[in-house]
Hints:
GO molecular function: 2 iron, 2 sulfur cluster binding; FAD binding; iron ion binding; oxidoreductase activity
Number of strands: 42
Strand content: 15-25%
Pfam families: Ald_Xan_dh_C, CO_deh_flav_C, FAD_binding_5, Fer2_2, MoCoBD_1, MoCoBD_2
Organism: Plakobranchus ocellatus
Oligomer: single chain
Largest sheet: 8 strands, mixed
Keywords: 2Fe-2S, FAD, Flavoprotein, Iron, Iron-sulfur, Metal-binding, Molybdenum, Oxidoreductase
Distance between the termini: 68 Å
Amino acid sequence: MSGIRFHVNGKEHIVPQSFHVTTSLNEYLRESAGLKGTKVMCKEVDGWQISTIEGIGSQRKGYHPIQERIAKFNGTQCGYCTPGMVMNMYGLLHQKPNITAQEVEDNFDGNICRCTGYRSILDAMKSFAGNANIPDSKAIDIEDLNKNLCSKTGEACTGKCGQGLDLRLNDAHWHRPTSLDQIGEVMKDNKHKKIRLVFGNTSTGIYKDDGPYDVYIDLHGVKELYSYEVNGKSVRLGAATTLTQVIERLKANHHKPGFKYFSDMSKHLKVVANVMVRNGGCIAGNLMIKYWHKEFPSDVFLMLECAGAKVEIFSSTSGKKETSSMMDFLNKVDMTDRVLTAVILPCLADNVVYRSFKITPRWQNAHAYVNAAFNIPIEGLVIKGRPSVVLGGISADTVHATKTEDFLANKTLSPAVLKEAYSTLRDELVPTENPQEASPKYRKDLASGLLYKVLLSLQPSKSSQVRSGVEDLHRPTSSGLQTYQEMTHDFPIHKGLPKKEAAVQAAGEAVFVNDMPKFQNELYAVFVLADVASATIESIDASEALKLPGVTHFFSAKDIIGENNYMYGGSLFSLTPHELKRAIITELSSGEYCHPIVFFISETQAMATTAAKLVKVTYSKIRTPVLSVEESLAKDMEFKDARITEVVGSPDEAWKTVDQKVEGTIKMGSQYHFYMETQVSLAVPSEDSIDVYSSTQNLDACQDAAAQIIGKPLNFINITVPRLGGGFGGKVFEPAMLTAASSLAAYLSDQPVRLNVDLASCIRIFGKRQPFVAKYKAGFTQEGDVKVVDVEILADSGYTDHGAMFTHDCINYMDMGYFVPNWNIVGKVMQTNKKSMMPTRAPGTVPGALIIESIMENVAKTLNKHPVFVKEINLYRKGQKDIMGHTLNNCTIREVWRRLKDIAEVEGRLRQVEAYNQENKWKKRAITMTTSKHHMHHYGPGLGATVTIYGRDGSVAVTQGGVEMGQGLYTKVAQGVAHVLGVPWEIIKVKPMQGISSPNSMISGGSIASESAMQAAIGAAQILKERMQPIREKFPDADWKELCQRSEANKLDLSARFFNRHELGDPLANYHTYCAGVIETEVDILTGESQIGRVDIMADYGESLNPVIDIGQTEGAFIMGVGCFLTEDTKFDKETGRILTDGTWNYKPPTTKDIPIDWRIHLLPDSPNPFGIRSSKASGEPAIALATGALLANKQALEAARKDLFGVRDFIPVDAPFTPEKAQQSVGLDESVFAV
């Protein structure tokens, strides 16, 4: 056969055999078909009908209702994830046109969005559900689904129509047989070769280094593998049954005698991987991952083994089928010449209790800390025979808890039997040590807790409180409410408009750097990274890599013409000389793991990646890396010149007057930015310069680094920033490393060079949020009025003292909404062998908020008062001075707090929570309130804007110095220009930032770029308006188009530039944004799992420039804070310093079911800001501080449990992220409290 044939959006594509066998559909669509809207991985597709985002709707052909709906609901910010969201819903509606709101929420578990906080996306998608209580809801018109249907069936493609296939693809052979016999023939013909059976190929997301293989056998065409048979004794599922189909078939049969356990199985399967994996991956594929990787905690294997299921296996040698138990399949059957053909699920006796569990770091799309299944035959309190207790996540060798099974066999349940069962289980489990996984103790405790849950369910309890241990946390469908005052003056400023480019993003037409078409003779670059954190580099051997075909160049520090430095301070920050020096390529030593050592350029991305893996680096003087501030302190590695001391008031005197004192320690780990668009730079030589396209928040830094490295003036570099797929501070400094490296490579090779860093490498190479340990002491009155606070901060700066600026920010933001008259703060900047820390959304607010909110909660605990009332006492009043010396004449925090407390019915809900906790021993709830006082300062030189009117038709174009990265900058700029010129905002286009038109600009960060860019555009538009005024006076009745034509005829310059120069307030802030939040959570005490039940937020954004956008910013910031404080754990290898959490398998930002179940956002009305642009305030960062409440509420719930269980009234130390492991372990459970 000459190639693979399939249709994309109705157009036939023939893929020749020259493609590499591992080429994904995603790669083909983007690089060969030019369909850049596709940004996710798909599978092999011969004979298929494929729809992409471009095929369902566009601005030229008209948008699809899903695209229109997500734009209307403000469900896009940066827009990078939006095509995936749209196509996920498109596929879901094909499966279920009459969908429910709950089904929508259940099917967005595989889509990550860092910007929006998910609520607006879910509302947009749930608006297609018939039962959704959402304004503007409307079901999908069936005609909108009938696009790109299969020409053979007239239905959506199922992927099963392909003919047999036999392809030689470079050095591998690809077969697609249509029968088991053909599989057998291929296996016999390739007996001594490495064979890979392929269906969904989902395992490559976990085990990326499996292979390479000589022969690939695609199983999609084998009809025998799709069988489905039901009888009274069993249900037979073909091996190619997808996990989604398994769920549907279990649901279809769970009401039948003997199959009620299917209900529990189907519920469990819904939290296996995500909907895309479940749609693509089959039941046999999951089992084969477990077969080849015994440590893999397969939920499928675990449930099947516990149920006593069997597998059917085809032998290519004998040509026959045989059945095997799950354990024999795992440990005894040689699968090298065999194929799984079916799974057989048995009918279980009526007296069997079957339950399964999966305890994970977040609600969905996460592998288990521990998973478990229990099959217990019981009559009354007597266990009949031997139960089955199957556990995953303990060790590669642990499947059954055999000693516990033996002990429980034929036992009559009693307190003594239960106690012995827990003890037996704990004694027999020996969890393996794995730095990537939870601690052995937690995993053992989880297993005991899950056994308790099951045994508790088997007997009537004398205590209704105890029964709460039986059930899992229940999460209903989420809902949201947003209220705001929409001002009518300055229209369309202050109007809640959707983002201007939302529909373009939803159609996949928004162009990011890596979406730009390939240039002629373009080359691809890949870094080689240091793989030890602290050592001397002796030699670098690239000889093997340079032998590869297509590898054209190899660059090291020796090839740098100019300066090996990418850090740029300009007039933005007060950086020390040490901070200003950051090598692009390491020369002699490695002080931080994964810093670039050298890099290659090649004709293909794949070849460059392969070349990088072949480089041999020799090290000497390898030292154990320093990875914590405690270790750094012990080794005297403080950057003493960077130490910060802040004294406010008279703390020494204040200590003499307080009634009580409290002290404690607070810890916070790091956080990766998790921008959806990874770091990328494209450098293209032109006639007398280099054109650079960068994904950066800081154009000037990139231009500076690119010019420096080749020893050229700044005007040699023409730089453009199309837009960003998220930034969050992670693209302020680090992109300069890429623009410098790509520019050097382009200059030396005289060819275009694209440097696109994958997710894992981004996490390894680039700096993150600064971790810290803070020790505090607070003095206060009997009423809870805090008079004095001492804090010592040990801040992890990484390898350089670059983190000193974030330590300084932390101190400046530490008061949040609370007035403390006396402070003594010492910030110690500690060196470690981690990457140098970088700004991450609200770099000072996040640690500052965690410190002061924790102190307030500890004060409340000491006084036996609820934190809400202690915090309320300490709120700022108008006229008081804050920690930086600002007089807060316009402070609204008490008004925000009062209104929110009333609207959220806090006092009534506090009573409800107390009553709930008295009634439930193993589920606890808590409520707290938090504040944010975020000072906005207009740092840097400012931003400029040029507004151009085209005289012949009156359309308007704007270019300005701010970077659009999802915050709505373009939209607010267009609103401002439309208002000044008095024209519809639809005729205004805002163009990408370019160095030549917006030089010497500040970074886009700190929440203020949108308002500054808008003010610059307003200034330029005002110049034009005044310039055109004489024409307007002469022709008062002329419409806009005629006015423009007459202005052009009168030779007016219809282009104007204005620079919005930044002036700092006194002493620093121009104004403050105030927010407050009410956060209610619920915790499962036995597992540490939690959920956010309700969140109410009130924010003072002045007269919001665009309330819809500002609410979106609020929600996105809050959920990023939830990740920082609850789920996003960063772990390191103690021997090498390697970061272990370098991908989505083990790094867990929040997903759609980690958001509040009930989420209400209110903007404070009637609060114009006299110091803001058009009376507004910025919104990008303040709300992230409120998420501290999720951690602190969880902690309150756990403290309530400790009071119930042990009679103690203590304060659990604050340690973020407060993962389920940390939460459960903080209670101190043992078997003595497992009462019935």
